[in-house]
Amino acid sequence: MNTLGKYIRLTTFGESHGPAMGGILDGMPSRVQIDADRVQSELDRRAPGRVALTSARREPDKIEILSGISAEGLTLGSPIGFIIRNRDARSADYSAYEGKFRPNHADYTYHEKYGIHDFRGGGRASARETVSWVAAGAICRQWLETYGIKVEARLIETNNIGEIAAKGDSTGAIVDGMITGLPVGIGEPVFDKLSARLAQAMMSINAAKAFEYGDGTAAADAIGSEVQDKPFIDPQDGKVRFKTNHSGGIQGGISNGMPVNFKVYFKPTPTIMQPMDTIDTSGCEVTIDPRGRHDPCVAVRAVPVVEAMAILTVSDLLRYAL
C-alpha cells in the first residue's frame, strides 16, 4: 500500500531514479499557517550529501507545493499535493546490478512478487521514498505545534560509523524518539492503539528491524512491583500525573499524558563497498562489485524520518479525536 493514515492521509509516488518523488496529503484542517521555509529545513535535514558519513548523492530536495496551500501559506482544507524532483540519480552507477539480487535488499522479493523490479537505486524500495514522508511530516508538525505537541528524535551510535565506513562496511544504529505535549486519550482500542500505530509507522521505514516504547524489551526481565507507574494528583494544577513512566506514555493503547518515548532499531545498510556473492535472475552464482553512493549507516538520515512518521501517526489519531 502507498497510503498512510485514515483521517489525515498521505499517499506517495515515485521511484528513486525516476523524475520525481511526491505525495498527496489529504485531510489537513483548513486555515493552518504553514511556513514553507520550515518545511524545506526539514527536507534539508534528511537530504543526502549534506553531512559527513552519508551518501554522496547531492539532491537539492526542493519541494514544489502544487495545491492545498494559499499564497499566504494557509491550508485550504483541500488535498496538499507536492513533488520533490530527483536531480542527481546517476542511474548508470547501477547498471552492474541489473539482473542480480543484492543481499538483504528487496531485489529478490520485488522480482518474485511483480516479475519486474527497478534495480536503479532500488525503485520504490529505496530510502529515497522517505523524502515525501518528511515533507508531509513537516507540514503536519506545524499543526501539532498549535496544540503544544512536539516530536524529537536523536541518533544513538552502536558502532563507530566513521571507522566502519573507512573499511567499506556498514553498521546499524538506534534512533531514540520522544513525543511531548500529547493529551490524554489519543489512540483507539482495540486494533488502533497508539502503540500499534507507531509500531506500524516505524517498521515501515527502510532498514528498521525493531521498535519498542517505554521499558520495551527490558520489561520482560522486570517484576511487577518494579514497573508500576503510580498516579497522583499534581497539587499545582489538580491534574493526574505519574511518578514514573515505564509505560512510555501509553496505557491500554491510549496516551496517558506522559511523554511517549520509543526506540527504533536499524540494520546495517545492505550495500557495502566490498564484493558481494549472490545469484542472478537465472539462478547462476555471481559476484557484485559495489558501485553507487550509499550511506554507511542509514540511521543517520533516518532521524528526521522517524520524527515525520511519529508526527503523521499522531496527527491522524488526533484528527479523529477532535
- Straight-line N-to-C gap: 26 Å
The global form is globular
Output mean pLDDT: 92
> What's the number of helices?
6
| Largest sheet strand order | 1-2-3-5-4
Relative strand content = 15-25%
Structural classification: alpha+beta
Q: Percent helix among the residues?
A: 10-25%
Poorly predicted parts: none
User: Whole-number radius of gyration?
Assistant: 21 Å
Order of helices and strands: EEEHEEHHEHEHEEEEEEEEH
Tell me what you see in this structure.
The chain is an alpha+beta fold and 322 residues long. It is built from six helices and 15 strands. It has a five-stranded antiparallel β-sheet, with helices on one face. A hairpin with a 5-residue loop joins β14 and β15. α5 runs antiparallel to α6 (299-321). The longest helix is centred in the last third of the chain and has 23 residues, at 299-321. It starts with a strand and ends with a helix.
